[in-house]
Write a structure and sequence with these properties.
heterodimer, A: 206 residues, 3 helices, B: 166 residues, Arc Repressor Mutant, subunit A, 9 helices
Protein backbone atom coordinates (compact mmCIF):
# COMPACT_ATOMS: atom_id res chain seq x y z
CA UNK A 1 0.00 0.00 0.00
CA UNK A 2 3.02 2.29 -0.05
CA UNK A 3 2.08 3.11 -3.65
CA UNK A 4 -1.33 4.20 -2.42
CA UNK A 5 0.31 6.39 0.21
CA UNK A 6 2.70 7.99 -2.24
CA UNK A 7 -0.04 8.62 -4.82
CA UNK A 8 -2.27 10.14 -2.18
CA UNK A 9 0.58 12.32 -1.00
CA UNK A 10 1.28 13.52 -4.52
CA UNK A 11 -2.34 14.40 -5.15
CA UNK A 12 -2.60 16.19 -1.81
CA UNK A 13 0.64 18.09 -2.41
CA UNK A 14 -0.61 19.28 -5.79
CA UNK A 15 -3.88 20.47 -4.27
CA UNK A 16 -2.03 22.13 -1.39
CA UNK A 17 0.21 24.03 -3.76
CA UNK A 18 -2.83 25.40 -5.59
CA UNK A 19 -4.60 26.54 -2.42
CA UNK A 20 -5.05 30.28 -2.09
CA UNK A 21 -5.64 31.11 1.56
CA UNK A 22 -7.57 34.15 2.67
CA UNK A 23 -5.53 36.76 4.56
CA UNK A 24 -5.34 35.84 8.22
CA UNK A 25 -6.71 39.26 9.18
CA UNK A 26 -9.88 38.46 7.22
CA UNK A 27 -10.15 35.05 8.87
CA UNK A 28 -9.89 36.72 12.26
CA UNK A 29 -12.44 39.36 11.34
CA UNK A 30 -14.92 36.74 10.14
CA UNK A 31 -14.23 34.63 13.22
CA UNK A 32 -14.91 37.56 15.53
CA UNK A 33 -18.16 38.29 13.72
CA UNK A 34 -19.21 34.68 13.96
CA UNK A 35 -18.42 34.59 17.68
CA UNK A 36 -20.51 37.68 18.34
CA UNK A 37 -23.42 36.15 16.46
CA UNK A 38 -23.12 32.85 18.30
CA UNK A 39 -22.81 34.45 21.69
CA UNK A 40 -25.70 36.80 21.07
CA UNK A 41 -27.91 33.87 20.15
CA UNK A 42 -26.76 31.90 23.18
CA UNK A 43 -27.20 34.86 25.48
CA UNK A 44 -30.71 35.44 24.24
CA UNK A 45 -31.58 31.80 24.84
CA UNK A 46 -30.14 32.13 28.32
CA UNK A 47 -32.12 35.25 28.95
CA UNK A 48 -35.37 33.64 28.00
CA UNK A 49 -34.59 30.86 30.49
CA UNK A 50 -33.79 33.10 33.44
CA UNK A 51 -36.11 35.56 35.10
CA UNK A 52 -36.25 38.76 33.16
CA UNK A 53 -36.89 40.53 36.42
CA UNK A 54 -33.14 40.62 36.78
CA UNK A 55 -32.95 42.96 33.85
CA UNK A 56 -32.49 46.62 34.51
CA UNK A 57 -35.04 48.78 32.80
CA UNK A 58 -34.21 52.30 31.93
CA UNK A 59 -36.26 54.76 30.00
CA UNK A 60 -34.42 57.57 28.32
CA UNK A 61 -35.41 61.11 29.12
CA UNK A 62 -38.54 62.08 27.25
CA UNK A 63 -38.17 64.32 24.30
CA UNK A 64 -34.55 63.73 23.49
CA UNK A 65 -32.03 61.04 22.94
CA UNK A 66 -29.24 60.44 25.45
CA UNK A 67 -26.50 63.02 25.38
CA UNK A 68 -23.66 62.58 22.90
CA UNK A 69 -20.70 60.46 23.78
CA UNK A 70 -18.35 61.79 26.35
CA UNK A 71 -14.69 61.38 25.63
CA UNK A 72 -13.39 58.01 26.67
CA UNK A 73 -10.89 57.91 29.47
CA UNK A 74 -7.46 58.24 27.98
CA UNK A 75 -6.13 55.13 29.70
CA UNK A 76 -8.96 52.88 28.50
CA UNK A 77 -8.89 50.52 25.53
CA UNK A 78 -11.26 51.45 22.75
CA UNK A 79 -12.89 49.12 20.28
CA UNK A 80 -15.46 49.91 17.64
CA UNK A 81 -17.70 47.83 15.41
CA UNK A 82 -19.99 48.71 12.57
CA UNK A 83 -22.58 46.80 10.61
CA UNK A 84 -24.48 47.85 7.53
CA UNK A 85 -27.52 45.90 6.39
CA UNK A 86 -30.47 46.53 4.15
CA UNK A 87 -32.29 47.89 7.23
CA UNK A 88 -29.66 50.51 7.98
CA UNK A 89 -26.40 51.01 9.76
CA UNK A 90 -25.31 50.67 13.38
CA UNK A 91 -21.96 51.44 14.91
CA UNK A 92 -20.83 51.22 18.50
CA UNK A 93 -17.70 52.31 20.32
CA UNK A 94 -16.73 50.74 23.61
CA UNK A 95 -14.10 52.21 25.92
CA UNK A 96 -13.08 49.84 28.69
CA UNK A 97 -10.43 48.63 31.05
CA UNK A 98 -9.79 44.97 31.67
CA UNK A 99 -6.98 43.03 33.19
CA UNK A 100 -6.49 39.42 32.14
CA UNK A 101 -9.14 37.26 33.76
CA UNK A 102 -10.57 40.14 35.79
CA UNK A 103 -13.77 42.11 35.64
CA UNK A 104 -14.48 44.40 32.76
CA UNK A 105 -14.83 48.05 33.59
CA UNK A 106 -16.64 50.03 30.91
CA UNK A 107 -15.88 53.72 30.67
CA UNK A 108 -18.31 54.50 27.87
CA UNK A 109 -20.45 52.85 25.25
CA UNK A 110 -21.63 55.04 22.43
CA UNK A 111 -23.85 54.22 19.50
CA UNK A 112 -24.83 55.69 16.19
CA UNK A 113 -27.80 54.34 14.26
CA UNK A 114 -29.29 55.10 10.92
CA UNK A 115 -32.38 53.18 9.85
CA UNK A 116 -34.02 53.26 6.44
CA UNK A 117 -37.52 53.09 7.89
CA UNK A 118 -38.46 54.95 11.06
CA UNK A 119 -40.23 52.93 13.77
CA UNK A 120 -42.90 53.84 16.34
CA UNK A 121 -41.09 52.58 19.43
CA UNK A 122 -37.37 52.88 18.84
CA UNK A 123 -35.41 51.16 21.57
CA UNK A 124 -31.99 49.81 22.26
CA UNK A 125 -31.52 46.57 24.10
CA UNK A 126 -28.15 46.33 25.75
CA UNK A 127 -27.19 42.73 26.35
CA UNK A 128 -24.26 41.69 28.46
CA UNK A 129 -23.05 38.14 28.60
CA UNK A 130 -20.09 36.85 30.51
CA UNK A 131 -18.40 33.53 29.90
CA UNK A 132 -16.58 31.91 32.78
CA UNK A 133 -13.49 29.71 32.42
CA UNK A 134 -15.52 26.53 32.88
CA UNK A 135 -18.06 27.38 30.21
CA UNK A 136 -20.58 28.90 32.61
CA UNK A 137 -22.44 31.91 31.30
CA UNK A 138 -24.32 34.77 32.88
CA UNK A 139 -26.38 37.30 31.02
CA UNK A 140 -28.20 40.47 31.85
CA UNK A 141 -29.95 43.05 29.77
CA UNK A 142 -31.11 46.61 29.86
CA UNK A 143 -33.36 48.65 27.65
CA UNK A 144 -33.18 52.23 26.49
CA UNK A 145 -36.27 53.75 24.93
CA UNK A 146 -35.15 56.27 22.38
CA UNK A 147 -36.99 59.51 21.80
CA UNK A 148 -38.44 61.10 19.86
CA UNK A 149 -40.00 58.26 17.89
CA UNK A 150 -40.16 58.26 14.13
CA UNK A 151 -36.60 59.39 13.54
CA UNK A 152 -34.17 57.69 11.22
CA UNK A 153 -30.99 58.68 13.05
CA UNK A 154 -30.10 58.16 16.67
CA UNK A 155 -26.79 58.57 18.40
CA UNK A 156 -25.61 58.98 21.92
CA UNK A 157 -23.99 57.34 24.88
CA UNK A 158 -25.38 54.64 27.10
CA UNK A 159 -26.00 56.29 30.50
CA UNK A 160 -23.44 55.59 33.23
CA UNK A 161 -26.25 54.17 35.35
CA UNK A 162 -26.69 51.36 32.86
CA UNK A 163 -22.99 50.77 32.41
CA UNK A 164 -22.92 49.90 36.10
CA UNK A 165 -24.71 46.68 35.16
CA UNK A 166 -21.55 45.61 33.45
CA UNK A 167 -19.42 46.15 36.54
CA UNK A 168 -21.36 43.97 38.95
CA UNK A 169 -20.13 40.65 37.66
CA UNK A 170 -17.70 39.05 40.08
CA UNK A 171 -15.28 36.18 39.66
CA UNK A 172 -12.88 35.18 36.94
CA UNK A 173 -14.19 35.76 33.44
CA UNK A 174 -12.93 34.37 30.18
CA UNK A 175 -14.65 36.81 27.91
CA UNK A 176 -17.39 39.37 28.00
CA UNK A 177 -19.66 40.31 25.18
CA UNK A 178 -21.79 43.37 24.84
CA UNK A 179 -24.42 43.40 22.13
CA UNK A 180 -26.60 46.34 21.22
CA UNK A 181 -29.89 45.63 19.46
CA UNK A 182 -32.00 48.29 17.82
CA UNK A 183 -35.61 47.15 17.98
CA UNK A 184 -39.16 48.35 17.68
CA UNK A 185 -40.09 47.70 21.30
CA UNK A 186 -43.67 48.49 22.20
CA UNK A 187 -43.55 46.95 25.69
CA UNK A 188 -42.16 49.43 28.19
CA UNK A 189 -42.34 47.07 31.14
CA UNK A 190 -40.12 44.26 30.02
CA UNK A 191 -37.68 43.12 27.44
CA UNK A 192 -38.90 41.31 24.41
CA UNK A 193 -36.28 38.93 23.15
CA UNK A 194 -35.24 40.60 19.92
CA UNK A 195 -35.38 37.58 17.70
CA UNK A 196 -35.95 39.91 14.80
CA UNK A 197 -34.06 42.97 15.83
CA UNK A 198 -33.77 45.61 13.14
CA UNK A 199 -30.05 46.10 13.67
CA UNK A 200 -27.52 44.58 15.98
CA UNK A 201 -23.84 44.96 16.73
CA UNK A 202 -21.57 43.74 19.47
CA UNK A 203 -18.08 43.61 20.84
CA UNK A 204 -16.22 40.81 22.56
CA UNK A 205 -13.63 41.51 25.20
CA UNK A 206 -11.49 38.56 26.22
CA UNK B 1 -4.54 30.48 21.25
CA UNK B 2 -3.74 34.15 20.81
CA UNK B 3 -3.59 36.09 17.55
CA UNK B 4 0.11 35.45 16.91
CA UNK B 5 -0.17 31.74 17.63
CA UNK B 6 -3.21 31.51 15.40
CA UNK B 7 -1.42 33.35 12.57
CA UNK B 8 1.52 30.96 12.79
CA UNK B 9 -0.76 27.94 13.00
CA UNK B 10 -2.79 29.14 10.00
CA UNK B 11 0.29 29.70 7.86
CA UNK B 12 1.81 26.36 8.83
CA UNK B 13 -1.22 24.13 8.30
CA UNK B 14 -3.60 25.69 5.76
CA UNK B 15 -2.06 24.22 2.63
CA UNK B 16 -1.53 20.79 4.16
CA UNK B 17 -5.13 20.64 5.34
CA UNK B 18 -6.46 21.66 1.93
CA UNK B 19 -4.43 18.81 0.43
CA UNK B 20 -5.89 16.35 2.90
CA UNK B 21 -9.43 17.57 2.38
CA UNK B 22 -8.97 17.44 -1.36
CA UNK B 23 -7.97 13.80 -1.07
CA UNK B 24 -11.08 13.18 1.01
CA UNK B 25 -13.52 15.13 -1.14
CA UNK B 26 -11.99 15.12 -4.59
CA UNK B 27 -13.01 18.73 -5.05
CA UNK B 28 -10.36 21.44 -4.86
CA UNK B 29 -12.63 24.43 -4.33
CA UNK B 30 -14.83 22.57 -1.86
CA UNK B 31 -11.75 21.52 0.09
CA UNK B 32 -10.41 25.05 0.21
CA UNK B 33 -13.77 26.55 1.19
CA UNK B 34 -14.31 23.99 3.92
CA UNK B 35 -10.84 24.45 5.40
CA UNK B 36 -11.20 28.22 5.22
CA UNK B 37 -14.53 28.10 7.03
CA UNK B 38 -13.08 25.72 9.63
CA UNK B 39 -10.35 28.25 10.41
CA UNK B 40 -12.96 30.99 10.79
CA UNK B 41 -14.83 28.76 13.25
CA UNK B 42 -11.58 27.99 15.03
CA UNK B 43 -10.87 31.67 15.60
CA UNK B 44 -14.44 32.28 16.71
CA UNK B 45 -13.69 29.94 19.64
CA UNK B 46 -9.98 30.64 19.90
CA UNK B 47 -9.98 31.04 23.67
CA UNK B 48 -10.90 27.37 23.97
CA UNK B 49 -9.59 26.19 20.62
CA UNK B 50 -6.33 24.43 21.53
CA UNK B 51 -7.46 23.16 24.89
CA UNK B 52 -7.33 19.53 23.80
CA UNK B 53 -3.92 20.00 22.20
CA UNK B 54 -4.92 18.81 18.73
CA UNK B 55 -5.90 21.93 16.78
CA UNK B 56 -5.02 20.50 13.37
CA UNK B 57 -7.21 17.46 13.92
CA UNK B 58 -10.01 19.80 15.01
CA UNK B 59 -9.71 21.83 11.80
CA UNK B 60 -9.65 18.69 9.65
CA UNK B 61 -12.68 17.24 11.38
CA UNK B 62 -14.60 20.51 11.21
CA UNK B 63 -13.71 20.99 7.54
CA UNK B 64 -14.87 17.44 6.79
CA UNK B 65 -18.16 18.08 8.55
CA UNK B 66 -18.62 21.35 6.67
CA UNK B 67 -17.96 19.60 3.35
CA UNK B 68 -20.24 16.67 4.24
CA UNK B 69 -22.95 19.05 5.31
CA UNK B 70 -22.70 20.91 2.00
CA UNK B 71 -22.95 17.67 0.05
CA UNK B 72 -26.11 16.76 1.90
CA UNK B 73 -27.57 20.20 1.37
CA UNK B 74 -26.72 20.28 -2.29
CA UNK B 75 -27.51 16.68 -3.05
CA UNK B 76 -30.72 17.64 -4.79
CA UNK B 77 -28.80 20.17 -6.82
CA UNK B 78 -26.61 17.46 -8.17
CA UNK B 79 -23.29 18.55 -6.73
CA UNK B 80 -22.86 15.16 -5.13
CA UNK B 81 -22.69 13.74 -8.59
CA UNK B 82 -19.23 15.23 -8.83
CA UNK B 83 -18.06 12.87 -6.13
CA UNK B 84 -19.14 9.77 -7.94
CA UNK B 85 -18.75 10.84 -11.51
CA UNK B 86 -15.56 10.31 -13.41
CA UNK B 87 -13.51 13.45 -13.06
CA UNK B 88 -12.89 15.76 -15.93
CA UNK B 89 -9.72 17.79 -16.21
CA UNK B 90 -11.81 20.93 -15.63
CA UNK B 91 -13.08 19.62 -12.29
CA UNK B 92 -9.57 19.26 -10.99
CA UNK B 93 -7.54 22.18 -12.22
CA UNK B 94 -3.88 21.62 -12.74
CA UNK B 95 -3.01 18.03 -11.87
CA UNK B 96 -1.38 15.67 -14.29
CA UNK B 97 -3.49 12.99 -16.04
CA UNK B 98 -2.36 10.24 -13.69
CA UNK B 99 -3.59 12.31 -10.75
CA UNK B 100 -6.94 12.84 -12.44
CA UNK B 101 -7.23 9.11 -12.98
CA UNK B 102 -6.22 8.37 -9.42
CA UNK B 103 -8.72 10.86 -8.01
CA UNK B 104 -11.38 9.38 -10.27
CA UNK B 105 -10.59 5.97 -8.80
CA UNK B 106 -10.64 7.35 -5.29
CA UNK B 107 -14.04 8.92 -5.89
CA UNK B 108 -15.49 5.51 -6.61
CA UNK B 109 -14.74 4.53 -3.01
CA UNK B 110 -17.56 5.32 -0.55
CA UNK B 111 -16.95 8.56 1.36
CA UNK B 112 -16.33 7.12 4.82
CA UNK B 113 -13.95 4.49 3.45
CA UNK B 114 -12.14 7.17 1.49
CA UNK B 115 -11.88 9.30 4.60
CA UNK B 116 -10.39 6.41 6.57
CA UNK B 117 -7.89 5.70 3.81
CA UNK B 118 -6.79 9.34 3.66
CA UNK B 119 -6.46 9.59 7.44
CA UNK B 120 -4.42 6.39 7.55
CA UNK B 121 -2.26 6.68 4.45
CA UNK B 122 -1.95 10.45 4.11
CA UNK B 123 -2.33 11.85 7.62
CA UNK B 124 -0.44 8.92 9.15
CA UNK B 125 -2.98 8.43 11.92
CA UNK B 126 -3.26 5.12 13.72
CA UNK B 127 -6.47 3.10 13.63
CA UNK B 128 -7.20 4.24 17.18
CA UNK B 129 -6.67 7.89 16.26
CA UNK B 130 -8.93 7.52 13.23
CA UNK B 131 -11.54 5.90 15.44
CA UNK B 132 -11.36 8.88 17.78
CA UNK B 133 -11.57 11.41 14.94
CA UNK B 134 -14.39 9.74 13.09
CA UNK B 135 -16.30 8.66 16.18
CA UNK B 136 -16.59 4.97 15.29
CA UNK B 137 -15.08 1.84 16.88
CA UNK B 138 -11.59 0.71 15.83
CA UNK B 139 -13.10 -2.41 14.26
CA UNK B 140 -15.21 -0.28 11.98
CA UNK B 141 -12.16 1.71 10.95
CA UNK B 142 -10.30 -1.51 10.12
CA UNK B 143 -13.25 -2.72 8.08
CA UNK B 144 -13.47 0.58 6.22
CA UNK B 145 -9.76 0.50 5.48
CA UNK B 146 -9.94 -3.06 4.22
CA UNK B 147 -13.00 -2.42 2.08
CA UNK B 148 -11.63 0.86 0.82
CA UNK B 149 -8.34 -0.70 -0.19
CA UNK B 150 -10.09 -3.63 -1.77
CA UNK B 151 -12.29 -1.25 -3.74
CA UNK B 152 -9.35 0.91 -4.70
CA UNK B 153 -6.85 -1.71 -5.75
CA UNK B 154 -8.70 -2.75 -8.92
CA UNK B 155 -9.00 0.89 -9.90
CA UNK B 156 -5.30 1.39 -9.29
CA UNK B 157 -4.64 -1.59 -11.49
CA UNK B 158 -6.96 -0.15 -14.12
CA UNK B 159 -5.06 3.09 -13.84
CA UNK B 160 -1.73 1.34 -14.16
CA UNK B 161 -2.99 -0.69 -17.10
CA UNK B 162 -4.31 2.37 -18.87
CA UNK B 163 -0.99 4.13 -18.38
CA UNK B 164 0.96 1.13 -19.65
CA UNK B 165 -0.97 1.24 -22.92
CA UNK B 166 -0.03 4.88 -23.53
Amino acid sequence: MSDLSSQLRQVADDAASQARPMAVSDVIKRGDRRRRRTMATRSLSGLSAVALGAAVIFTGAAGHAPSPASAAASHANTTSEQTTTTAGKISIVLAYKKEQGRNLSVSSLTYSIHVKDAVKHPSLILLLSVNGPKGQMAASAAIIHLAPAGQRNYSGAVPKKLLAVIHVRKGRTLETQIVVFFVNQPNKHGITIPGHSILQEGVVVS
Amino acid sequence: MDRDEFTTFYAATFHRLVGQLYAMTGDQSEAQDAVQEAFVRAWSRHTRFDRDGAPEAWIRLTAWRIAASRWRRNREGGRLVRLTAVATPEAVPGPTPDHVAFIAALRKVPAEQRRAIVLYHLCDLTVEQIAAETGVPAGTVKARLARGRAALVPHLRETAASFSTH
